[in-house]
């Protein structure tokens, strides 16, 4: 491979802001795997956000890139999987599997798509220093006739339209809006874009904790919600605390500490089969490797309010943000019914196909 921009390239990143700022180029925030695609003739490589290759996990995209992309190019975009008109991140996670036979089976049953939103190189020219507006024009020209499963992300300079996208596109599984400076060159690894994400709140049961890597203080709180059958399901964690607050939380929660998980709703957490019917902390996963997944059980008696952006199936997609304790709420009242469901929106309408 001999391109004007060579792997690895760290993608340009975004910082969170509260509102959509004026004067930018706006795109939907896709919920998939960020990927830099390098093509030099028959050679194709997919680099992840961390720089590790994703190529072997998406053979159907490699074939599509050879067929539909310019012969020599470098693209920034997102690998996504759509099901029933919306993005399915769980299906995407399943594609990262060590067995080649499993990868190829899933490539046929749940094929991925690629949504391109930046062009870093074309033929012998690097576009890294070109302003974003020029890269956008070159991207539209380069991918004008690409077709499914390669798409170009919709973009607009209209702030009001971006606000409408923010409200409507969540129903298709997208999780916000990204703003880009039209005059800025591509800045690998720098947070020079902005992102506006949805934020909602939920009251959750605090049913356990994990220690911080520095010692016996709170690293994360394990959160639960009751389902329709009355079972407490593990829905995520809250983990961002100053060190002093971690120490305070440890003291506050000490009276709830259980000597063991016996009698706890998640008592069977170490049993792999138990995870097939209930969500509990410490579930086996190829993502966690040999990491210590042990946790400290707490009597599920305290309720806290957390902020979250959106759900991934029956759990929080990202780490929830602790807001406050809710002594006025009974743990049994913390159910899935309180969660707001976005109005569904067909992903095909987002992509204009």
- Any guess at the CATH architecture of the largest domain? 2-Layer Sandwich
Write down the overall mean pLDDT.
90
Beta-strand content:
25-35%
Note the run of SSEs as H and E: EEEEHEEEHHEEHEEHEEEEEHEEEEH
Largest sheet: 6 strands, mixed
Helix content: 10-25%
The tally of helices reads 7
Tell me the name of the CATH class of the largest domain.
Alpha Beta
When the domains are counted, the total is 2
Give the number of DSSP strands: 20
Q: How many angstroms separate the termini?
A: 33 Å
Return the structural class. Answer: alpha+beta
Q: Superfamily at the CATH H level of the largest domain? A: DNA ligase/mRNA capping enzyme
Low-confidence stretches: none
| CATH topology description of the largest domain | D-amino Acid Aminotransferase, Chain A, domain 1
3D architecture notes:
The chain is an alpha+beta fold. It folds into 2 domains: 13-198, D-amino Acid Aminotransferase, Chain A, domain 1, CATH 3.30.470; 200-338, OB fold (Dihydrolipoamide Acetyltransferase, E2P), CATH 2.40.50.140. 18% of the residues lie in helices and 33% in strands. Strands 3, 4, 5, 8, 9 and 10 form a 6-stranded mixed β-sheet that branches. The two termini are 33 Å apart. 36% of the residues are buried. The mean pLDDT is 90. It is an enzyme of class 6 (ligase). InterPro entries: Adenylation_LigC-like, ATP-dep_DNA_ligase, DNA_ligase_ATP-dep_C, DNA_ligase_ATP-dep_cent, DNA_ligase_ATP-dep_CS, NA-bd_OB-fold, OBF_LigC-like. Residues 11-197 form the ATP-dependent DNA ligase family profile domain.
